[in-house]
Each structure stands twice: as structure tokens, then as C-alpha cells.
Amino acid sequence: MELSKYEQQMYGGEFGEAIQQSMEILVALGKIYKAENFIPVSSSQIAGVSYKTIGDAGLEYLEDMVKNNAKVKIPSYLNPAGMDITNWKDMKIPEDFAEKQLKIIELYSKMGIKTTCTCTPYLIGIRPKLKEHIAWSESSAVSFANSVLGARTNREGGPSALASAICGITPNYGLHLDENRISEILISVEADLKDSSDFGAMGYYLGNAVKGKIPSFIKISSASEDKLKALGAAMAATGSVPLYYVKNITPEFILSDSPEKITFEERELKEIKEKLNSETENLKPELIAIGCPHSSLDEIKEISEFLKGKKLLCDLWVCTSRNISEQAYKLKYTEIIEKAGGKIVCDSCMVVCPIEEIGYGITGVNSGKAAKYLPGFNKPRIIFKSIKELLSDYTEDV
Ligand code: F3S
Fold first, then answer.
1. Least buried of 34, 119, 132, 367, by fewest C-beta within 10 Å?
2. Domain shared by 292 and 266, yes or no
3. Is residue 199 located within the same domain as residue 282?
4. Which of 210, 242, 273 is the last residue of a domain?
5. From residue 388, how far is each of 297, 366, 394 by CA, in Å?
6. Ligand 1: centre distance to CA 277 (Å)
7. What pLDDT shows up at residue 376?
């Protein structure tokens, strides 16, 4: 790899151990992927925040970085943590877990990272522009940034996103290069996609079906950002798809001359929804968990409108960022949701919190990604429906 003088100095340890260690990670990555050089990145989004996912080894790594005076050079943001940072007791999070989780957040904060704790930074104003190079790591955020915003990012691991945050650069390979952003599979959508859960179900199905290729969709006449985030998150979950295009909707649509072609019809939509619900037919959820990826204000509004004058028959979590939660509170959506028996959960989600320790078994979700990642163990786990279906099936009038 060709390193500039400044990059060589960072790599050689002239600016301290934390920077040197970070450069070692970035150079190793660059060598593996045959990057020729580094490019500057304007922001970093760092996964590896939940104590459930990084454990004591991750905590120790962060402690070492802080001891070595690690500081970020660019605006850097955190992915969801394993609990609501302030209301963790309400979530029934064990004390020892909470203690470690708070320590992790404190360590990131000491490095100058903003403790946003969300997988939807783009809903709180962190929106890179078309062709802007960034280093993000949460797979659904990577998909949204590449596809819906047209930014350039690979799917970073937590350590490489942190290393980029500390050095301000990333190796120039993969989706940073235009030649790797060409779609080779065209998907004609013949199904009638009604809501975000339908987009999530389609994403769940197609993540597998596209077999590592970048998909391009046609015949989707309109799709809100909420629907696109559901689609991208599910494809990233089942097939590690980091980029997709939708004709006339995404800012770019770059298709090869002779793409493979497939259709997604009503039959496939029905099949995948049945598959996701097959083990929980006739069972009731103990928890409905909405907000994977984190809910937008519009989604919270929809939930609150539905819950007016109703009482939930099971627990409800609406997972979102703290910033969106504050807006929902001001608009009194929170009051309505809480009156019906639900909770707004900030900073975390049903997948990265220790849900098994909390004791929830069967969970109702509207998200293809949550359906993929909620752990199964030995018992049936998922009820997959739209927000409207979940809330009408498991509420009663008061
Ligand atoms: Fe976000 Fe958690 Fe889903 S991090 S994308 S809400 S699994």
C-alpha cells in the first residue's frame, strides 16, 4: 500500500500507541483487500457497543485504547447498546450487565465518540451526502447510507470503524470504488408490498436469493425511507447485502449490461411470511418489539395513533434513538403508548439486549432483520406481522 508521509508517521508510532495500533488494523485490512491507498472519511459509526456482543474481551480492548489516549479525529457515533442507558431498570436488565454496559459507554465517550447509540443515525440528522466516503459498521446503516443516501462505505467491523475514527482514514477498496458498485441482478417486483413488514419480508427472502450480488429493483412505484430501511436491513441480515438500487427512488441506479433477472411475486411474499410464522401459529407473543432498525418518528406516531383508547395484551417495546424518543415525548406519542401499557426503549434493541435473561420467549416483530437475529434456543420464537396486525391482534378496547 502506498502511504502518505503523515500516514507513515501514524503507522510508525510518532503520534502514540493508540494511533499506531489503529493504523496496524487499517493497513492489515488494506493488504487483505489489496487497497492501493487510504482515503479520508468524514464520519464513523461504530458497532460493538453492547456488552452482550463484545463481552469482557471487548471491554478490556476499549480500556487499553483509553489508557493509550485514543481520541477520534472525525465525528463518530455509536450503535445501540445492550440496554436503555437511563431506564435500564425498567427493562429488567441485570445489575452486573448494566455496570459493564455503562463502563463501555463511558470509555467510548472518553475517546470523543458521541454516545448516540442508534443504528439509524440518518434519522437524527447524520446524513452523509452522495459519494461522501464514510466508515460505518452497523449493517443496516451501511445499507441505508450506500443505497438511499448514495454515500460510500464498506461494512466495517467495530474495531476497524474505531480505527478509522481515530486515524480519519480508511483503506480504499470495495464499495469506495465505483467499479465495485455495479449491480448484476435485476429484481422485478410483482408483489403488492403494503407496508414496511412486506419490504422486510421481501428483503429476508432476497438476501439469500441474490447470492452476494448487488440487487437492483424495478417496479416499486414508491417507498418511504421507513420501507427502504426495512428492506435494506433484512437483506443485510440474511445475505450481507451492503448496497441496492431502486429504479427512480435511490439516487443511483448502476446496472451491468447483462444482469441476471428474477421476479418477486405474491407467491414468494406469502411463502416467506408463512415460513417466518410457521412455528408460532396459534401462539401469543409475550413481547411485541418494534424498531429494528430503530423507529422513526413517523412509525412511533403510527403506533400511538393505533393505541389510542386501547390496552395491550402483552408487553410492547418501541426501540428508537434517544433523540427521536425526546421528540415523541414532546408530541405526546409516548404518553399514549405508555397508557396502553407499552414502553419506548432508547439506545438499545430487542436483538442486542440480553432478552433471554430478561425472560421473554415468543416475540412479535415486524422486522425481517429481527426475525433473523432473535435467538431461537429450543422454543419457537417469532411472530412476524405488520405493526397494524400486531397491535390489532394483541390489544383490546378500554
Ligand atoms: Fe438496529 Fe438492533 Fe435491528 S441494532 S438494525 S434495531 S438488530
1. 34
2. no
3. no
4. 273
5. 16, 9, 10
6. 20
7. 63
C-beta 10 within 6 A of ligand 1: no
Walk along the chain (398 residues) in steps of 10 and give the mean pLDDT of each run. Answer: 97 98 98 98 98 97 97 98 97 96 98 98 98 98 98 97 98 98 98 97 97 97 97 98 98 97 98 92 93 98 97 98 98 98 97 90 95 73 94 96
pLDDT tens digits, one per residue of 244-284: 999 999 999 999 999 999 999 999 999 999 999 988 888 99
Q: Which atom of ligand 1 is nearest to the CA of 79?
A: 4
The reported pLDDT for the residue numbered 276 is 93
Buried b (16+ CB within 10 A) or exposed e, 170-188: bbbbbbbeeeebebbbbbe
- Tell me the C-alpha distance between 199 and 161, whole Å: 28
Is the pTM value of this prediction over 0.85?
yes
Whether 172 and 25 share a structural domain: yes
For residue 353 and ligand 1, the question of a CB distance below 6 A is answered with no
- Asked whether 11 and 20 are in contact (CB, 8 A), the reply is yes
Q: Which residue's alpha carbon is at the smallest distance from atom 5 of ligand 1?
A: 293
Which of 118, 144, 178 lies at the terminal end of a domain, its last residue?
178
Considering the domain architecture, whether residues 22 and 144 belong to the same structural domain is answered as yes
Name 310's Cβ contacts closer than 8 Å, sequence gap at least 6. Answer: 340, 391, 395, 396, 397, 398
Do 252 and 222 contact (CB within 8 A), yes or no? no
Domain shared by 170 and 186, yes or no: no
Count of structural domains within the chain: 3
Domain containing residue 220: 182-273
Q: Could you tell me if 12 and 153 lie in one domain? A: yes
Rounded to whole angstroms, the Cα distance separating 56 from 370 reads 25
346 and 234 belong to one structural domain: no
CATH of the domain at 327: 3.30.499.10
Determine the distance separating the centroid of ligand 1 and the alpha carbon of 398, expressed in angstroms.
32
Q: Is 80 in the pocket of ligand 1 (CB under 6 A)?
A: yes
Q: Clarify whether residues 168 and 140 are in a common domain.
A: yes
- Could you give the C-alpha distances from 172 to 41, 160, 298, in angstroms and in order? 10, 13, 37
**Residue 42, amino acid:** S
The C-alpha cell 468524514 sits at 42
